[in-house]
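Let's practice the habit of predicting before peeking. Look at the sequence and jot down your guess about where helices and strands might fall. Then scroll down.
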Amino acid sequence: MAAQRPRLVVISGPGGVGKGTVVRELLRLHPDLAVSVSATTRQPRPGEVDGMDYHYLTPAQFDALAAQDAFLEWAEFAGNRYGTPWTSVAKAMAAGKTVVLEIEVQGAAQVRQRFADALLLFIVPPTREVLLERLRHRGTDDDERIGRRMALAEAELEEADKFDHVVVNDTVDGAVTEIARILGR
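Done guessing? Here is the structure:
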């Protein structure tokens, strides 16, 4: 008998590791997967679209939803809040889809508490130097903020052993191939 595919997959890792790029490519190659669009209080980056990249909320809107227990998980990261709305996860799971969450380390721990059978994948950079270069290349943060993000990344990398699998994002294609293999696709 073939192993059952996971219904809920968490992809996490430090900021700047390339989670979004890896998830976009995974979904392009495996359109049968459903992605849950997270909500955030941060401002959109150039080219990001509300409802597609994130649901952009004011802090007051986010607080109201959190008070209503409308999030599967939520966490604060780099001064902004991020959360996974229950509605999108429940709808996709009810349709029999495997749901992919691209979330931060704090949120992954909350998902594990609520869904013991969730599959947690942790994306790591090939080296710390590569992660630093990726953060600089984004062009969205000054040196002070990059320093804070690197310090946070160091703490997050210490959490890798709490995940089911660790995937090195040396190349997007390599990381996606490894994730697809883990998912049995």
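How did you do? The chain has a mean pLDDT of 91.
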